[in-house]
Design goal:
It is a multi-pass membrane protein. Keywords: ATP-binding, Cell membrane, Membrane, Nucleotide-binding, Transmembrane, Transmembrane helix, Transport. Helix content is 64%, strand content 10%. It is elongated. It has three domains: 233 residues, Up-down Bundle (ABC transporter transmembrane region fold), CATH 1.20.1560.10; 79 residues; 250 residues, P-loop containing nucleotide triphosphate hydrolases (Rossmann fold, 3-Layer(aba) Sandwich). It is built from 22 helices and ten strands. The structure holds adenosine-5'-triphosphate (ATP). The site of adenosine-5'-triphosphate has 11 residues, from helix 13.
Length: 588
Protein backbone atom coordinates (compact mmCIF):
# COMPACT_ATOMS: atom_id res chain seq x y z
CA UNK A 1 0.00 0.00 0.00
CA UNK A 2 1.43 3.43 -0.88
CA UNK A 3 2.18 6.06 1.75
CA UNK A 4 -0.55 8.27 0.32
CA UNK A 5 -3.31 5.72 0.82
CA UNK A 6 -2.12 5.24 4.41
CA UNK A 7 -2.21 8.95 5.09
CA UNK A 8 -5.43 9.77 7.03
CA UNK A 9 -5.57 13.29 5.59
CA UNK A 10 -5.38 11.91 2.06
CA UNK A 11 -8.13 9.41 2.86
CA UNK A 12 -10.45 12.00 4.40
CA UNK A 13 -10.00 14.34 1.42
CA UNK A 14 -10.26 11.58 -1.15
CA UNK A 15 -14.06 11.80 -1.77
CA UNK A 16 -13.80 15.52 -2.60
CA UNK A 17 -10.36 15.42 -4.22
CA UNK A 18 -11.87 16.31 -7.64
CA UNK A 19 -13.45 19.52 -6.33
CA UNK A 20 -10.27 20.48 -4.47
CA UNK A 21 -8.24 19.96 -7.66
CA UNK A 22 -10.72 22.14 -9.57
CA UNK A 23 -10.34 24.84 -6.89
CA UNK A 24 -6.56 24.64 -7.05
CA UNK A 25 -6.63 24.82 -10.86
CA UNK A 26 -8.92 27.87 -10.82
CA UNK A 27 -6.78 29.44 -8.08
CA UNK A 28 -3.68 28.95 -10.26
CA UNK A 29 -5.39 30.50 -13.29
CA UNK A 30 -6.62 33.36 -11.08
CA UNK A 31 -3.08 34.01 -9.84
CA UNK A 32 -1.70 33.87 -13.36
CA UNK A 33 -4.26 36.34 -14.65
CA UNK A 34 -3.67 38.69 -11.73
CA UNK A 35 -0.05 38.96 -12.91
CA UNK A 36 -1.20 40.10 -16.35
CA UNK A 37 -2.15 43.67 -15.27
CA UNK A 38 1.40 44.21 -13.95
CA UNK A 39 2.91 42.94 -17.17
CA UNK A 40 0.44 45.03 -19.16
CA UNK A 41 1.29 48.13 -17.11
CA UNK A 42 4.97 47.67 -17.92
CA UNK A 43 4.08 47.15 -21.58
CA UNK A 44 1.78 50.20 -21.46
CA UNK A 45 4.70 52.22 -20.07
CA UNK A 46 6.78 51.07 -23.05
CA UNK A 47 4.05 52.24 -25.47
CA UNK A 48 3.62 55.60 -23.73
CA UNK A 49 7.34 56.26 -23.47
CA UNK A 50 8.25 55.14 -26.98
CA UNK A 51 9.28 58.04 -29.28
CA UNK A 52 6.95 59.23 -32.05
CA UNK A 53 3.16 59.53 -32.12
CA UNK A 54 1.12 57.56 -29.58
CA UNK A 55 -0.02 54.14 -30.79
CA UNK A 56 -3.71 54.54 -29.83
CA UNK A 57 -4.77 51.01 -30.83
CA UNK A 58 -1.99 49.34 -28.80
CA UNK A 59 -2.76 51.59 -25.85
CA UNK A 60 -6.45 50.68 -25.96
CA UNK A 61 -5.75 46.96 -26.33
CA UNK A 62 -3.35 47.03 -23.41
CA UNK A 63 -5.90 48.91 -21.27
CA UNK A 64 -8.55 46.34 -22.24
CA UNK A 65 -6.20 43.49 -21.33
CA UNK A 66 -5.65 45.08 -17.90
CA UNK A 67 -9.41 45.38 -17.30
CA UNK A 68 -10.17 41.85 -18.56
CA UNK A 69 -7.30 40.31 -16.62
CA UNK A 70 -8.43 42.01 -13.43
CA UNK A 71 -12.00 40.75 -13.92
CA UNK A 72 -10.88 37.24 -14.89
CA UNK A 73 -8.44 37.02 -11.97
CA UNK A 74 -11.15 38.08 -9.56
CA UNK A 75 -13.66 35.63 -11.08
CA UNK A 76 -11.26 32.67 -11.06
CA UNK A 77 -10.15 33.28 -7.47
CA UNK A 78 -13.80 33.62 -6.42
CA UNK A 79 -14.74 30.40 -8.21
CA UNK A 80 -11.70 28.62 -6.76
CA UNK A 81 -12.71 29.53 -3.21
CA UNK A 82 -16.30 28.54 -3.98
CA UNK A 83 -15.12 25.09 -5.17
CA UNK A 84 -12.88 24.50 -2.15
CA UNK A 85 -15.57 25.71 0.27
CA UNK A 86 -18.04 23.37 -1.40
CA UNK A 87 -15.49 20.54 -1.09
CA UNK A 88 -14.95 21.40 2.57
CA UNK A 89 -18.69 21.59 3.21
CA UNK A 90 -19.24 18.14 1.62
CA UNK A 91 -16.27 16.62 3.41
CA UNK A 92 -17.36 18.01 6.80
CA UNK A 93 -20.96 16.87 6.29
CA UNK A 94 -19.76 13.37 5.35
CA UNK A 95 -17.34 13.25 8.29
CA UNK A 96 -20.00 14.39 10.76
CA UNK A 97 -22.41 11.79 9.35
CA UNK A 98 -19.72 9.10 9.60
CA UNK A 99 -18.85 10.12 13.15
CA UNK A 100 -22.50 9.96 14.21
CA UNK A 101 -22.88 6.58 12.46
CA UNK A 102 -19.76 5.15 14.11
CA UNK A 103 -20.57 6.62 17.52
CA UNK A 104 -24.06 5.17 17.26
CA UNK A 105 -22.63 1.68 16.71
CA UNK A 106 -19.86 1.45 19.26
CA UNK A 107 -20.63 -0.48 22.46
CA UNK A 108 -21.87 1.78 25.26
CA UNK A 109 -18.84 0.77 27.34
CA UNK A 110 -16.61 2.49 24.74
CA UNK A 111 -17.69 5.87 26.09
CA UNK A 112 -15.48 7.23 28.82
CA UNK A 113 -14.04 10.61 29.85
CA UNK A 114 -11.17 10.01 27.45
CA UNK A 115 -13.28 9.14 24.41
CA UNK A 116 -15.75 11.95 25.17
CA UNK A 117 -12.82 14.41 25.21
CA UNK A 118 -11.59 13.02 21.89
CA UNK A 119 -15.06 13.37 20.34
CA UNK A 120 -15.37 16.97 21.55
CA UNK A 121 -11.94 17.79 20.17
CA UNK A 122 -12.71 16.12 16.84
CA UNK A 123 -16.01 17.93 16.34
CA UNK A 124 -14.90 21.33 17.63
CA UNK A 125 -11.21 21.74 16.75
CA UNK A 126 -10.14 19.04 14.34
CA UNK A 127 -12.85 19.67 11.76
CA UNK A 128 -11.94 23.37 11.96
CA UNK A 129 -8.29 22.53 11.17
CA UNK A 130 -9.41 20.60 8.10
CA UNK A 131 -11.59 23.55 7.05
CA UNK A 132 -8.58 25.89 7.06
CA UNK A 133 -6.54 23.55 4.95
CA UNK A 134 -9.16 22.49 2.40
CA UNK A 135 -11.16 25.69 2.02
CA UNK A 136 -8.33 28.25 2.18
CA UNK A 137 -4.75 27.09 2.20
CA UNK A 138 -4.81 24.93 -0.92
CA UNK A 139 -5.97 27.90 -3.04
CA UNK A 140 -3.76 30.43 -1.26
CA UNK A 141 -0.73 28.18 -1.59
CA UNK A 142 -1.12 27.69 -5.35
CA UNK A 143 -1.61 31.44 -5.82
CA UNK A 144 1.45 32.11 -3.69
CA UNK A 145 3.49 29.79 -5.93
CA UNK A 146 2.10 30.68 -9.36
CA UNK A 147 2.25 34.45 -8.99
CA UNK A 148 5.98 34.81 -8.24
CA UNK A 149 6.95 31.85 -10.45
CA UNK A 150 5.22 33.35 -13.48
CA UNK A 151 6.61 36.77 -12.52
CA UNK A 152 10.12 35.33 -12.50
CA UNK A 153 9.51 33.60 -15.83
CA UNK A 154 8.35 36.91 -17.30
CA UNK A 155 11.54 38.54 -16.04
CA UNK A 156 13.55 35.67 -17.47
CA UNK A 157 11.82 36.24 -20.79
CA UNK A 158 12.78 39.92 -20.64
CA UNK A 159 16.34 39.23 -19.52
CA UNK A 160 17.72 36.43 -17.33
CA UNK A 161 19.70 38.97 -15.26
CA UNK A 162 16.43 40.57 -14.14
CA UNK A 163 15.35 37.24 -12.70
CA UNK A 164 18.53 37.06 -10.65
CA UNK A 165 18.03 40.66 -9.57
CA UNK A 166 14.54 39.91 -8.22
CA UNK A 167 15.81 37.13 -5.93
CA UNK A 168 19.10 38.70 -4.93
CA UNK A 169 18.27 38.89 -1.21
CA UNK A 170 16.91 35.35 -1.12
CA UNK A 171 20.07 33.40 -0.25
CA UNK A 172 20.42 35.33 3.04
CA UNK A 173 16.87 34.42 3.94
CA UNK A 174 17.19 30.79 2.81
CA UNK A 175 20.34 30.16 4.87
CA UNK A 176 18.85 31.85 7.98
CA UNK A 177 15.60 29.92 7.56
CA UNK A 178 17.30 26.53 7.10
CA UNK A 179 19.35 27.27 10.25
CA UNK A 180 16.16 28.12 12.16
CA UNK A 181 14.40 24.96 11.10
CA UNK A 182 17.16 22.58 12.23
CA UNK A 183 15.60 19.94 14.53
CA UNK A 184 12.26 21.79 14.35
CA UNK A 185 10.20 18.57 14.60
CA UNK A 186 11.98 17.32 17.75
CA UNK A 187 11.83 20.71 19.42
CA UNK A 188 8.13 21.07 18.64
CA UNK A 189 7.48 17.62 20.12
CA UNK A 190 9.31 18.58 23.31
CA UNK A 191 7.38 21.84 23.50
CA UNK A 192 4.09 19.99 22.89
CA UNK A 193 4.89 17.52 25.68
CA UNK A 194 5.82 20.36 28.00
CA UNK A 195 2.60 22.21 27.14
CA UNK A 196 0.56 19.03 27.75
CA UNK A 197 2.07 18.94 31.23
CA UNK A 198 0.88 22.53 31.77
CA UNK A 199 -2.65 21.58 30.58
CA UNK A 200 -2.70 18.50 32.82
CA UNK A 201 -1.55 20.59 35.79
CA UNK A 202 -4.33 23.12 35.12
CA UNK A 203 -7.00 20.40 34.85
CA UNK A 204 -5.71 18.71 38.00
CA UNK A 205 -5.67 22.01 39.85
CA UNK A 206 -9.17 23.05 38.74
CA UNK A 207 -10.73 19.61 39.29
CA UNK A 208 -9.28 19.20 42.72
CA UNK A 209 -9.66 22.81 43.79
CA UNK A 210 -12.45 22.15 46.30
CA UNK A 211 -10.56 19.35 48.03
CA UNK A 212 -7.29 21.22 47.84
CA UNK A 213 -8.82 24.36 49.36
CA UNK A 214 -10.69 22.44 52.00
CA UNK A 215 -7.38 20.98 53.22
CA UNK A 216 -5.57 24.30 52.93
CA UNK A 217 -3.15 22.89 50.32
CA UNK A 218 -3.62 25.58 47.68
CA UNK A 219 0.06 26.51 47.77
CA UNK A 220 1.22 22.91 47.31
CA UNK A 221 -1.20 22.19 44.47
CA UNK A 222 -0.28 25.47 42.83
CA UNK A 223 3.37 24.46 43.04
CA UNK A 224 2.81 21.66 40.47
CA UNK A 225 1.24 24.11 38.05
CA UNK A 226 4.03 26.66 38.64
CA UNK A 227 6.71 24.07 37.96
CA UNK A 228 5.03 22.93 34.73
CA UNK A 229 4.70 26.53 33.51
CA UNK A 230 8.29 27.30 34.48
CA UNK A 231 9.55 24.26 32.58
CA UNK A 232 7.51 25.26 29.52
CA UNK A 233 8.67 28.89 29.60
CA UNK A 234 12.34 27.80 29.98
CA UNK A 235 12.09 25.46 27.01
CA UNK A 236 10.19 28.02 24.98
CA UNK A 237 12.63 30.82 25.72
CA UNK A 238 15.64 28.55 25.06
CA UNK A 239 14.22 27.68 21.68
CA UNK A 240 12.79 31.04 20.69
CA UNK A 241 15.66 33.41 21.68
CA UNK A 242 18.18 32.29 19.03
CA UNK A 243 15.28 31.96 16.58
CA UNK A 244 14.29 35.56 17.09
CA UNK A 245 17.78 36.80 16.22
CA UNK A 246 17.79 34.75 13.02
CA UNK A 247 14.20 35.70 12.30
CA UNK A 248 15.17 39.37 12.55
CA UNK A 249 18.05 38.81 10.14
CA UNK A 250 15.95 36.84 7.66
CA UNK A 251 13.06 39.30 7.89
CA UNK A 252 15.50 42.13 7.24
CA UNK A 253 16.62 40.41 4.03
CA UNK A 254 13.00 40.36 2.88
CA UNK A 255 11.88 43.77 4.14
CA UNK A 256 10.54 46.26 1.56
CA UNK A 257 13.36 48.86 1.96
CA UNK A 258 16.12 46.24 1.61
CA UNK A 259 14.50 44.66 -1.45
CA UNK A 260 13.91 48.09 -3.01
CA UNK A 261 17.48 49.14 -2.29
CA UNK A 262 18.95 45.92 -3.70
CA UNK A 263 16.84 45.85 -6.88
CA UNK A 264 17.20 49.57 -7.56
CA UNK A 265 20.96 49.54 -6.95
CA UNK A 266 21.38 46.43 -9.09
CA UNK A 267 18.98 47.88 -11.68
CA UNK A 268 20.99 51.11 -11.87
CA UNK A 269 24.09 49.04 -12.48
CA UNK A 270 22.31 47.06 -15.24
CA UNK A 271 21.08 50.35 -16.77
CA UNK A 272 24.58 51.79 -16.73
CA UNK A 273 25.74 48.75 -18.69
CA UNK A 274 22.78 49.11 -21.02
CA UNK A 275 21.64 45.54 -20.38
CA UNK A 276 18.02 46.51 -19.69
CA UNK A 277 15.67 49.52 -19.85
CA UNK A 278 14.18 51.46 -16.88
CA UNK A 279 10.80 49.74 -17.30
CA UNK A 280 12.47 46.34 -17.01
CA UNK A 281 13.98 47.39 -13.69
CA UNK A 282 10.51 48.47 -12.58
CA UNK A 283 9.12 45.01 -13.52
CA UNK A 284 11.91 43.30 -11.55
CA UNK A 285 11.19 45.50 -8.55
CA UNK A 286 7.45 44.69 -8.68
CA UNK A 287 8.10 40.93 -8.79
CA UNK A 288 10.74 41.13 -6.03
CA UNK A 289 8.28 42.98 -3.78
CA UNK A 290 5.67 40.20 -4.19
CA UNK A 291 8.05 37.40 -3.10
CA UNK A 292 8.03 37.83 0.72
CA UNK A 293 4.26 37.35 0.80
CA UNK A 294 4.75 34.07 -1.06
CA UNK A 295 7.11 32.79 1.59
CA UNK A 296 4.77 33.86 4.37
CA UNK A 297 1.81 32.06 2.76
CA UNK A 298 3.88 28.92 2.09
CA UNK A 299 5.00 28.91 5.69
CA UNK A 300 1.45 29.26 6.98
CA UNK A 301 0.40 26.53 4.54
CA UNK A 302 3.02 24.19 6.01
CA UNK A 303 1.78 24.81 9.55
CA UNK A 304 -1.83 24.33 8.41
CA UNK A 305 -0.86 21.10 6.66
CA UNK A 306 0.87 19.78 9.77
CA UNK A 307 -2.06 20.69 12.04
CA UNK A 308 -4.57 19.21 9.60
CA UNK A 309 -2.50 16.02 9.40
CA UNK A 310 -2.61 15.60 13.19
CA UNK A 311 -6.35 16.43 13.22
CA UNK A 312 -7.03 13.92 10.43
CA UNK A 313 -5.16 11.24 12.39
CA UNK A 314 -7.34 11.84 15.46
CA UNK A 315 -10.56 11.84 13.41
CA UNK A 316 -9.49 8.68 11.56
CA UNK A 317 -8.81 6.88 14.85
CA UNK A 318 -12.31 7.81 16.07
CA UNK A 319 -13.82 6.59 12.81
CA UNK A 320 -11.92 3.33 13.24
CA UNK A 321 -13.62 2.59 16.60
CA UNK A 322 -14.84 -1.01 16.58
CA UNK A 323 -18.63 -1.20 16.27
CA UNK A 324 -20.70 -3.46 18.48
CA UNK A 325 -20.79 -6.75 16.55
CA UNK A 326 -24.33 -7.44 15.32
CA UNK A 327 -25.77 -10.84 14.51
CA UNK A 328 -26.71 -11.41 10.86
CA UNK A 329 -29.64 -13.53 11.98
CA UNK A 330 -30.99 -11.74 15.06
CA UNK A 331 -33.34 -13.63 17.33
CA UNK A 332 -36.31 -12.35 19.28
CA UNK A 333 -36.05 -12.74 23.07
CA UNK A 334 -39.06 -14.33 24.76
CA UNK A 335 -39.87 -13.04 28.24
CA UNK A 336 -37.72 -11.09 30.65
CA UNK A 337 -35.47 -13.61 32.37
CA UNK A 338 -31.78 -12.69 32.65
CA UNK A 339 -29.18 -15.44 32.84
CA UNK A 340 -25.42 -15.42 33.19
CA UNK A 341 -23.78 -18.72 32.31
CA UNK A 342 -20.12 -19.22 33.25
CA UNK A 343 -19.40 -15.61 32.43
CA UNK A 344 -15.84 -14.30 32.53
CA UNK A 345 -14.73 -10.86 31.49
CA UNK A 346 -11.60 -8.73 31.19
CA UNK A 347 -11.21 -5.14 29.98
CA UNK A 348 -9.00 -5.23 26.88
CA UNK A 349 -5.81 -7.10 27.73
CA UNK A 350 -6.21 -6.48 31.46
CA UNK A 351 -6.70 -9.04 34.21
CA UNK A 352 -9.95 -11.00 34.57
CA UNK A 353 -12.44 -8.84 36.54
CA UNK A 354 -15.25 -11.44 36.39
CA UNK A 355 -14.65 -15.18 36.61
CA UNK A 356 -17.07 -17.99 35.97
CA UNK A 357 -20.27 -16.22 37.05
CA UNK A 358 -23.49 -18.22 36.73
CA UNK A 359 -26.68 -16.52 37.83
CA UNK A 360 -30.36 -16.68 36.99
CA UNK A 361 -32.63 -13.65 37.53
CA UNK A 362 -36.22 -14.83 37.25
CA UNK A 363 -38.79 -12.57 35.51
CA UNK A 364 -40.40 -10.05 37.84
CA UNK A 365 -37.84 -10.47 40.64
CA UNK A 366 -35.26 -8.12 42.15
CA UNK A 367 -31.68 -9.38 42.30
CA UNK A 368 -29.23 -7.28 44.28
CA UNK A 369 -25.51 -7.27 43.55
CA UNK A 370 -23.46 -6.33 46.58
CA UNK A 371 -19.81 -6.54 47.55
CA UNK A 372 -16.71 -4.47 48.14
CA UNK A 373 -15.74 -1.68 45.83
CA UNK A 374 -14.10 -3.06 42.69
CA UNK A 375 -15.69 -6.51 43.15
CA UNK A 376 -17.14 -6.30 39.62
CA UNK A 377 -20.80 -5.42 40.31
CA UNK A 378 -21.14 -2.66 37.70
CA UNK A 379 -19.19 -4.63 35.14
CA UNK A 380 -21.47 -7.65 35.58
CA UNK A 381 -24.69 -5.61 35.41
CA UNK A 382 -23.67 -3.65 32.33
CA UNK A 383 -22.93 -6.84 30.39
CA UNK A 384 -26.72 -7.21 30.06
CA UNK A 385 -27.20 -4.09 27.85
CA UNK A 386 -23.89 -5.03 26.13
CA UNK A 387 -21.74 -2.16 27.35
CA UNK A 388 -19.11 -4.82 26.67
CA UNK A 389 -19.26 -8.38 25.41
CA UNK A 390 -18.20 -11.30 27.62
CA UNK A 391 -14.71 -12.79 27.24
CA UNK A 392 -16.17 -16.24 27.91
CA UNK A 393 -19.60 -17.68 28.71
CA UNK A 394 -23.01 -16.30 27.77
CA UNK A 395 -25.41 -13.60 28.93
CA UNK A 396 -29.02 -14.35 27.96
CA UNK A 397 -32.08 -12.12 27.91
CA UNK A 398 -35.42 -13.81 27.34
CA UNK A 399 -33.55 -17.06 26.66
CA UNK A 400 -31.45 -15.57 23.82
CA UNK A 401 -27.72 -14.73 23.87
CA UNK A 402 -27.56 -10.90 23.97
CA UNK A 403 -25.12 -11.00 21.03
CA UNK A 404 -27.87 -12.52 18.90
CA UNK A 405 -30.42 -9.82 19.73
CA UNK A 406 -30.58 -6.72 17.48
CA UNK A 407 -29.33 -3.75 19.57
CA UNK A 408 -32.56 -1.77 19.19
CA UNK A 409 -34.57 -4.79 20.39
CA UNK A 410 -32.18 -5.26 23.32
CA UNK A 411 -32.58 -1.61 24.38
CA UNK A 412 -36.37 -2.01 24.23
CA UNK A 413 -35.99 -4.89 26.65
CA UNK A 414 -33.29 -3.54 28.96
CA UNK A 415 -33.33 -0.09 30.55
CA UNK A 416 -30.77 1.32 32.95
CA UNK A 417 -30.38 4.07 35.52
CA UNK A 418 -26.70 4.57 36.25
CA UNK A 419 -24.77 6.44 38.95
CA UNK A 420 -24.39 9.58 36.89
CA UNK A 421 -27.72 9.91 35.10
CA UNK A 422 -27.42 12.11 32.02
CA UNK A 423 -29.85 14.67 30.68
CA UNK A 424 -29.67 15.61 27.03
CA UNK A 425 -29.95 19.14 25.62
CA UNK A 426 -33.59 20.04 25.11
CA UNK A 427 -36.79 20.38 27.08
CA UNK A 428 -37.83 18.35 30.09
CA UNK A 429 -40.42 16.68 27.84
CA UNK A 430 -37.77 15.72 25.25
CA UNK A 431 -35.75 14.15 28.04
CA UNK A 432 -38.63 12.17 29.43
CA UNK A 433 -39.78 10.91 26.02
CA UNK A 434 -36.36 9.70 24.82
CA UNK A 435 -37.40 6.04 24.94
CA UNK A 436 -40.96 6.70 23.76
CA UNK A 437 -41.15 9.78 21.51
CA UNK A 438 -44.90 9.38 20.92
CA UNK A 439 -45.85 9.28 24.63
CA UNK A 440 -49.11 11.08 25.42
CA UNK A 441 -49.26 13.98 27.87
CA UNK A 442 -51.20 11.93 30.43
CA UNK A 443 -48.58 9.15 30.34
CA UNK A 444 -45.72 11.65 30.72
CA UNK A 445 -47.36 13.27 33.75
CA UNK A 446 -48.16 9.88 35.28
CA UNK A 447 -44.53 8.79 34.94
CA UNK A 448 -43.24 12.07 36.42
CA UNK A 449 -45.68 11.78 39.33
CA UNK A 450 -44.65 8.19 40.00
CA UNK A 451 -40.99 9.27 39.93
CA UNK A 452 -41.78 12.07 42.44
CA UNK A 453 -40.59 14.82 40.08
CA UNK A 454 -43.88 16.20 38.66
CA UNK A 455 -44.24 18.97 41.28
CA UNK A 456 -40.72 20.22 40.62
CA UNK A 457 -41.38 20.31 36.85
CA UNK A 458 -44.67 22.23 37.02
CA UNK A 459 -43.02 24.81 39.29
CA UNK A 460 -40.62 25.66 36.42
CA UNK A 461 -41.36 28.73 34.22
CA UNK A 462 -42.42 26.66 31.23
CA UNK A 463 -43.35 23.43 32.99
CA UNK A 464 -42.65 20.39 30.85
CA UNK A 465 -41.45 22.67 28.02
CA UNK A 466 -38.71 24.23 30.15
CA UNK A 467 -35.31 23.95 28.53
CA UNK A 468 -32.73 22.18 30.67
CA UNK A 469 -29.79 24.43 31.41
CA UNK A 470 -31.78 27.58 30.47
CA UNK A 471 -35.02 27.45 32.50
CA UNK A 472 -33.93 24.80 34.94
CA UNK A 473 -30.86 23.35 36.57
CA UNK A 474 -31.56 20.00 38.22
CA UNK A 475 -29.73 18.61 41.23
CA UNK A 476 -28.19 15.12 41.16
CA UNK A 477 -31.20 13.62 42.98
CA UNK A 478 -33.67 15.40 40.67
CA UNK A 479 -31.74 14.22 37.63
CA UNK A 480 -31.99 10.66 38.97
CA UNK A 481 -35.76 11.01 39.39
CA UNK A 482 -36.08 12.43 35.85
CA UNK A 483 -34.19 9.43 34.50
CA UNK A 484 -36.43 7.12 36.54
CA UNK A 485 -39.49 8.81 34.98
CA UNK A 486 -37.85 8.34 31.59
CA UNK A 487 -37.43 4.62 32.32
CA UNK A 488 -41.05 4.35 33.48
CA UNK A 489 -42.18 5.82 30.17
CA UNK A 490 -39.80 3.61 28.17
CA UNK A 491 -41.40 0.70 30.04
CA UNK A 492 -38.59 -1.82 29.53
CA UNK A 493 -39.32 -5.16 31.23
CA UNK A 494 -35.72 -5.50 32.47
CA UNK A 495 -33.97 -2.84 34.53
CA UNK A 496 -30.39 -2.28 35.60
CA UNK A 497 -30.11 0.12 38.54
CA UNK A 498 -26.52 0.99 39.42
CA UNK A 499 -26.17 2.90 42.68
CA UNK A 500 -29.09 5.13 41.70
CA UNK A 501 -28.98 6.84 45.09
CA UNK A 502 -25.20 7.20 45.21
CA UNK A 503 -25.07 10.99 45.17
CA UNK A 504 -28.33 11.79 46.96
CA UNK A 505 -28.88 13.37 50.37
CA UNK A 506 -31.14 11.42 52.80
CA UNK A 507 -34.36 13.25 51.78
CA UNK A 508 -33.63 12.94 48.09
CA UNK A 509 -32.60 9.32 48.62
CA UNK A 510 -35.96 8.53 50.23
CA UNK A 511 -37.76 10.02 47.24
CA UNK A 512 -35.55 8.16 44.77
CA UNK A 513 -36.15 4.90 46.66
CA UNK A 514 -39.90 5.63 46.47
CA UNK A 515 -39.65 6.20 42.73
CA UNK A 516 -37.50 3.10 42.29
CA UNK A 517 -39.99 0.86 44.06
CA UNK A 518 -42.69 2.04 41.61
CA UNK A 519 -40.29 1.47 38.71
CA UNK A 520 -39.25 -2.01 39.87
CA UNK A 521 -42.81 -3.34 40.17
CA UNK A 522 -43.41 -6.28 37.83
CA UNK A 523 -39.97 -6.01 36.18
CA UNK A 524 -36.81 -8.10 36.29
CA UNK A 525 -34.42 -5.89 38.19
CA UNK A 526 -30.70 -6.12 38.73
CA UNK A 527 -29.78 -3.56 41.36
CA UNK A 528 -26.35 -2.58 42.62
CA UNK A 529 -26.07 -0.98 46.03
CA UNK A 530 -23.39 -0.23 48.57
CA UNK A 531 -25.94 0.38 51.29
CA UNK A 532 -27.16 -3.11 52.15
CA UNK A 533 -30.22 -1.77 54.00
CA UNK A 534 -31.61 -0.54 50.69
CA UNK A 535 -31.60 -4.05 49.17
CA UNK A 536 -32.38 -6.28 52.17
CA UNK A 537 -35.88 -6.89 50.79
CA UNK A 538 -34.57 -8.00 47.37
CA UNK A 539 -35.71 -11.47 46.23
CA UNK A 540 -32.14 -12.58 45.77
CA UNK A 541 -28.86 -11.12 46.99
CA UNK A 542 -25.61 -11.99 45.23
CA UNK A 543 -22.37 -11.16 47.01
CA UNK A 544 -19.43 -10.63 44.65
CA UNK A 545 -15.85 -10.76 45.79
CA UNK A 546 -12.85 -10.38 43.50
CA UNK A 547 -14.99 -11.00 40.42
CA UNK A 548 -16.52 -14.23 41.72
CA UNK A 549 -19.79 -15.04 43.45
CA UNK A 550 -18.83 -15.44 47.11
CA UNK A 551 -22.33 -16.30 48.33
CA UNK A 552 -25.98 -15.74 47.45
CA UNK A 553 -29.44 -16.07 48.91
CA UNK A 554 -32.00 -14.05 50.92
CA UNK A 555 -31.02 -11.44 53.51
CA UNK A 556 -31.84 -13.60 56.55
CA UNK A 557 -30.19 -16.71 55.13
CA UNK A 558 -27.02 -14.76 54.29
CA UNK A 559 -26.87 -13.30 57.80
CA UNK A 560 -27.23 -16.78 59.27
CA UNK A 561 -24.39 -17.99 57.06
CA UNK A 562 -22.16 -15.47 58.77
CA UNK A 563 -19.95 -14.99 55.71
CA UNK A 564 -18.88 -11.88 53.80
CA UNK A 565 -22.43 -10.48 53.62
CA UNK A 566 -22.89 -10.75 57.38
CA UNK A 567 -19.49 -9.12 57.85
CA UNK A 568 -20.40 -6.22 55.55
CA UNK A 569 -23.81 -5.92 57.20
CA UNK A 570 -22.27 -5.63 60.67
CA UNK A 571 -19.84 -3.03 59.41
CA UNK A 572 -22.70 -0.92 58.07
CA UNK A 573 -25.15 -1.31 60.86
CA UNK A 574 -22.65 -1.58 63.74
CA UNK A 575 -21.09 1.15 65.87
CA UNK A 576 -19.61 4.25 64.23
CA UNK A 577 -15.96 3.02 64.37
CA UNK A 578 -16.93 -0.13 62.47
CA UNK A 579 -18.92 1.89 59.96
CA UNK A 580 -15.73 3.82 59.37
CA UNK A 581 -14.01 0.55 58.64
CA UNK A 582 -16.72 -0.27 56.10
CA UNK A 583 -16.22 3.03 54.39
CA UNK A 584 -12.52 2.29 54.20
CA UNK A 585 -13.23 -1.17 52.78
CA UNK A 586 -15.75 0.24 50.36
CA UNK A 587 -13.11 2.60 49.03
CA UNK A 588 -10.25 0.10 49.07
N1 LIG B 1 -13.44 0.82 31.80
C1 LIG B 1 -12.61 0.06 32.52
N2 LIG B 1 -11.41 -0.28 32.04
C2 LIG B 1 -10.56 -1.05 32.74
N3 LIG B 1 -10.83 -1.54 33.97
C3 LIG B 1 -12.02 -1.24 34.51
C4 LIG B 1 -12.97 -0.41 33.82
N4 LIG B 1 -14.06 -0.29 34.62
C5 LIG B 1 -13.81 -0.98 35.74
N5 LIG B 1 -12.59 -1.57 35.67
C6 LIG B 1 -11.97 -2.44 36.69
O1 LIG B 1 -12.79 -3.58 36.84
C7 LIG B 1 -12.88 -3.96 38.19
C8 LIG B 1 -14.36 -4.03 38.62
O2 LIG B 1 -14.89 -2.71 38.55
P1 LIG B 1 -16.44 -2.43 38.79
O3 LIG B 1 -16.66 -0.99 38.55
O4 LIG B 1 -17.23 -3.40 38.01
O5 LIG B 1 -16.57 -2.79 40.34
P2 LIG B 1 -17.75 -2.40 41.33
O6 LIG B 1 -17.91 -3.56 42.21
O7 LIG B 1 -18.95 -1.95 40.58
O8 LIG B 1 -17.10 -1.17 42.10
P3 LIG B 1 -17.84 0.09 42.77
O9 LIG B 1 -18.71 -0.46 43.83
O10 LIG B 1 -16.70 0.88 43.34
O11 LIG B 1 -18.56 0.79 41.68
C9 LIG B 1 -12.08 -2.94 38.98
O12 LIG B 1 -10.81 -3.49 39.24
C10 LIG B 1 -11.95 -1.77 38.05
O13 LIG B 1 -10.74 -1.10 38.27
Amino acid sequence: MSRKTNDPLHQLRHPVAGLIRLGVLLGGVGALTSLLPFVAIVELGRVLLSPGPLDIVRTEITALVIALALALGWLCTGLALWATHLADHRMQAALRRDLVRVLGRVPLGWYSDKTSGAIRKAVQNDLEELHHLVAHHDVERIAALVLPASGLLYLGWLDWRLMVLAVVTFPVYAVAYAWMMRGFGDKMEQLDASFSRVSAAIVEFVHGITVVKAFGQTGRAYQGYREAVHDFSERYAGWVRPLLRLEALSSLALSAPVILLATLAGGAWFLARDWVGPLDVMAATLVAMALPQTLLTLNQGMVAQRNAQAAAKRIASLLAAEPLPESRHPRQPAGSAVEFEQVSFRYGDGHEVLSDISLHCRPGTVTALVGRSGAGKSTLATLVPRFHDVSAGTVRVGGVDVRQIAPEVLYQKVGFVLQNAQLVRGTVRDNLCLGRPDAEEAAIIEAARAARIHDRIVALPRGYDSVIGEDAVFSGGETQRLSIARMLLADTPILILDEATAHADPESEARIQDALSVLAKGRTVLVIAHRLASVMTADHIVVLDGGRIAEQGGHEALLRRDGLYAHLWRLQTGPVEEAGEWEREARA
